[in-house]
Design goal:
It contains 10 helices and 8 strands. It is an alpha/beta fold. The protein has a single domain, classed as NAD(P)-binding Rossmann-like Domain (Rossmann fold, 3-Layer(aba) Sandwich). An 8-stranded mixed sheet has the order 3-2-1-4-5-6-7-8, with helices on both faces. Strand 5 and strand 6 (about 155-160) form a beta hairpin. The longest helix is centred in the C-terminal third of the chain and has 18 residues, at about 195-210. It is globular.
């Protein structure tokens, strides 16, 4: 099943009893969709490629900018002006040429997201605006796709995993987007460069665990992190009967784009 080169490449996985040869085969067969190729998407993409996830999709319509390089480690100085999905694919392929990378040079919206995520086992939200975050949640809930949410701002980060039909969703915590200008933008508030590495690697870990069927996923638990205090906090979350999309009487039954979107820098909506 494995070539000698593959056995050597994934040897540190294969020797783990929770992974082994069968588990590595599950990773080869797995398909993970990353929406956002920036701060969060960069470490997620690199670690999933290194782990040998067989098919990885990555969606983003933005191009690399000089201000991205302080934190978006999949992109280098030579990539300025290059679409992020192609820049990320280059690094992922260089790390592991066995992995298939599907690129989607587009912004996700209500018209295209269902088609983008339909062939994937697990979705990861690495986006930087509220419209996309609520849309990803709604699309995954309506289609039954498990996914990982992540958000960062300044020195604070948060993440939670959602299994539709089983766990609380993003709208169980935040039913609607915040008022315009309630959350500062990256250009006004900033973000410490290493923060997306912390949150993004947790999100990548959740995807790997889901494909393996190993360990406990971060469901019904919002994990928050403050880099200044070097402190993690776990906030219990319950599925809300009155949730507008996953509750007993949902009011959201079809996808729509949130018009009052904020272009925030890898958002951290909930500070612990």
């Amino acid at each position: 099943m494995f070539s000698e080169e593959q056995i050597e490449r994934y040897s540190r996985h294969i020797m783990l009893k929770e992974v082994g040869g069968k588990g590595q085969k599950k990773l080869f067969d797995g398909k993970v969709m990353i929406i956002g190729a920036g701060g969060l998407g960069s470490p997620i993409a690199l670690y999933l490629a290194a782990a040998g996830i067989g098919t990885i999709g990555i969606a983003d319509a933005d191009c690399v900018d000089l201000s991205n390089l302080q934190r978006q480690i999949a992109h280098h100085t030579k990539d300025i002006g290059v679409p992020k999905v192609f820049s990320a694919k280059e690094k992922m392929t260089a790390m592991n040429p066995e992995v298939r990378i599907n690129t989607y040079e587009t912004w996700v919206n209500a018209d295209n997201i269902t088609d983008i995520i339909k062939d994937y086992d697990f979705v990861i939200d690495g986006t930087d605006n509220f419209a996309a975050k609520f849309l990803i949640n709604d699309a995954c809930v309506l289609t039954g796709k498990p996914y990982s949410h992540g958000g960062i701002l300044q020195f604070d980060g948060q993440t939670i995993t959602v299994k539709p039909g089983e766990s609380a969703c993003y709208r169980c915590i935040f039913p609607t987007p915040p008022p315009k200008d309630a959350i500062p933008t990256c250009s006004r508030a900033g973000v410490i460069g290493v923060l997306p590495g912390v949150i993004g690697t947790i999100q990548a870990t959740e995807a790997i665990k889901f494909l393996l069927g190993a360990g406990d996923l971060l469901i019904d638990r919002l994990l928050t992190y403050n880099a200044l205090r070097m402190k993690f906090r776990e906030v219990p979350i319950r599925k809300k009967p009155k949730c507008p999309i996953c509750g007993d009487n949902p009011t959201i039954t079809e996808l729509k784009d949130e018009l009052e979107a904020l272009n925030v820098c890898e958002i951290g909506e909930a500070k612990g």
